[in-house]
User: Fold this.
Amino acid sequence: MNQTGYQLAEIVARFGGRVEGDGATRVSQIATLDCANAGQIAFLTNAKYRKQLEATRASAVILSEADADATQMPRIVAANPYSYFARLSAFLNPLREYAPGIHPSAVIGQGAQVSPQAHIGAHVWIGEGASVGAGTVVMVGCSIGENASIGENTRLYPRVVVYHDCVVGNHVIAHSGAVIGADGFGIAMDEGRWLKIPQIGRVVIGDHVEIGANTTIDRGALNDTIIEEGVKLDNQIQIAHNVRVGAHTAMAGCVGVAGSASIGRYCRIGGGAIILGHLQVAENVEVSSGTVVTKSIREAGTYTGTFPFGENREWRKNAAQLRHLDEMADRIKKLEQQIETLKGRE
Amino acid sequence: MNQTGYQLAEIVARFGGRVEGDGATRVSQIATLDCANAGQIAFLTNAKYRKQLEATRASAVILSEADADATQMPRIVAANPYSYFARLSAFLNPLREYAPGIHPSAVIGQGAQVSPQAHIGAHVWIGEGASVGAGTVVMVGCSIGENASIGENTRLYPRVVVYHDCVVGNHVIAHSGAVIGADGFGIAMDEGRWLKIPQIGRVVIGDHVEIGANTTIDRGALNDTIIEEGVKLDNQIQIAHNVRVGAHTAMAGCVGVAGSASIGRYCRIGGGAIILGHLQVAENVEVSSGTVVTKSIREAGTYTGTFPFGENREWRKNAAQLRHLDEMADRIKKLEQQIETLKGRE
Amino acid sequence: MNQTGYQLAEIVARFGGRVEGDGATRVSQIATLDCANAGQIAFLTNAKYRKQLEATRASAVILSEADADATQMPRIVAANPYSYFARLSAFLNPLREYAPGIHPSAVIGQGAQVSPQAHIGAHVWIGEGASVGAGTVVMVGCSIGENASIGENTRLYPRVVVYHDCVVGNHVIAHSGAVIGADGFGIAMDEGRWLKIPQIGRVVIGDHVEIGANTTIDRGALNDTIIEEGVKLDNQIQIAHNVRVGAHTAMAGCVGVAGSASIGRYCRIGGGAIILGHLQVAENVEVSSGTVVTKSIREAGTYTGTFPFGENREWRKNAAQLRHLDEMADRIKKLEQQIETLKGRE
Assistant:
């Protein structure tokens, strides 16, 4: 009998919900229904996977009230099985801890204030006047610019760069290769040459933000670029200067947001979508993957603009007609007029 | 009375233009019309923002001859207010200086030639035979490959990588995470396996080029990849092997240029655009954001190819018809023939 | 007479094919037909470049049986001139070697196993329990997470990050800025806030994989993200959590693959294409550049979905009609009915 892990009864005591079946059942890890082994707990968040309940080797499962009777195996019935799974997994899989202290190879600038409760890894550089809060982990090779401020309980994975004067909140996670505060793309044409416009704003990142690997967030030209609390950015995203991303908005990988766009709260932006500069996007807007948003969106809803893909020869035939669409519209109009004339004659 | 900053009279003595109103007015910083405070100078580059002149708290404003009388506040009248603003801002906001010298944690290869006037930051690595010119700042954690050459008065922000043998000009700026000279994507299929084609060309970057954060420029397969002088590349751009980017061309974020494409001078490529391999793009071409350029562009002009986005249900109805466009064209043609037949019968 | 390099006779003895003309001809480098100089060997892989044979200054050329008589210059006739060129170039341009050993500035965690035959560059960090195999080169500034495993004869260019527990095979190449194993984008909405879902899977990368600069491959949420042997990934690609990329599939720059997508073997994905989450793509599928794949592809073939670009004014006229496409289809149907009615009346 597996004595590691936690009993279902202990889990519901901590996270709520109720147990059906044997509350003494022990689980030590989360897994998907089809990959779970004994000692693991799976979850059902979509009724269409119900039939996987029969074959799963999991010792228990988390499911909703509606699915509560879909199996007789030991189970936790929860209002929101997906967030229950998230909480339980975070409990079973705590982040690796790094001991407070500054690695001897790190270079700390004059006047920098590093909390004794912070971990500063090998080959980190912290510029003059910068600060790092308690409980924060700055992993190997990060670079924190002069006078930048990193809050508490934040984690910067290896090789994150924060430029001078930028502000990163508490409980923020930034993954490797993220660059926060590089110059925005500000240039002015002057007699055949581009002049650089100094980018003197900052990036200000709220609490509980997550920033994906190799994502870039540019500093503002004059005012700041703002990422509000709870925003979640996936990898390879580009946020240009003076953008504002409203609280709790989530963007999937490879999104590009051009300068001075303002995105509302609780938006969901699909992978590879592009939002042009100076646009406004309302709250609770969902943009489909690959969509190019070319004008402001004033109302909540789902917006899409991708060309339906298909087998190349089919696409080629249809796409060729696209170049004649305006002409086709004219021809239809003319046909309608001719029909009317013909009908009139009878 | 604010005694810091510069009098308008001093500014026009240095940068040209003329003062209207009190030339003794002092300003110490640039700001936008709507965010400026006392002691700051704003600028008006577009007549549609004229009404912001009334409410601004700026001490002065830069504007064009055409707008010279739109306000009575102290002002500088300039031929090109935007480039005037760029110059003045660069004067008021000089780049942070870094003292010449090599940080003790930097590793310098045999035979590398580092100017005594260059700054080499912490944890930098400079390969054998590489060179760094006077006035250049190589910030923390950069890696300069063997025999690479970095010119004078160039600035590499933290964690830039330049591969072996590449050439970076003078007055170049490269932001964090930029990778210059990684292998181009050269592979040959051989009996079910890809063979790697050695990439033995270089990247050669001209003077006054700026390269954004996490932008990548691949070395040539046999010949070089060329970025001509004055090119401005935003973040997250991918320039493939053997591309040539003509002088003073500007590309916004997330652009991808495939192998051996040749882009003319003074082009402007919108964010997320893709230019396919081996294409030619003429001078002074503007490509709209999100456009996929699938054949060469021989004439200056603006080119676009994005699917108009819309509310998802509307898009869905219209997009469904796209698969029938070729058939629709046939039906219109048939209708036209039938109409002609009917008309002929009368 | 050039005494460096290799005689054509020596080359065919090593790589096969046959010499026509003087087998004593010496070549020391590969070049394109139009850029080659004396002492260099060029190659003809496409009959449409045949006329370049007349003007080339190359000392020899590699060509196919079909083109064997297109020139009388010294030449190697090979079944597949392109792969022959790849092999010969790899022979003439061996990768720079780095001596085994650990740079004194590198930081090696407790229990890490680094082969004495591995090269560990300056400012590298290797976490506790990680391993690096013989013949592997870990260049400056790389970060290898705790318990990660790097195989033999693998090369990590400067500033590659491998997160904890990930597995990288043998003969793998990863270019600068690549991030392997960052957290996938797993979040669950819970009472107005996103909860983070721990990403406890790994990334597992097979042998002979190449990963481009600034490409990111996320670790799995519960199960692993899998990159099978021989996969070639260009720069700036995003591979989300739990994706499987089948053996020998090649992806060009800026591709995004969303979570849990499964790509078959020997696929070719064009630059900037997007593949949505949970989709299946069969073997031998080619996806055109810039295509958004929104549903599973069950059969081999070429698939495309880009909007044909054009001069902006033309595009604008045609694109405007796109919003009326559904209505146009209705109007055509109505016209057809009216025509039938009119024809019936006669």
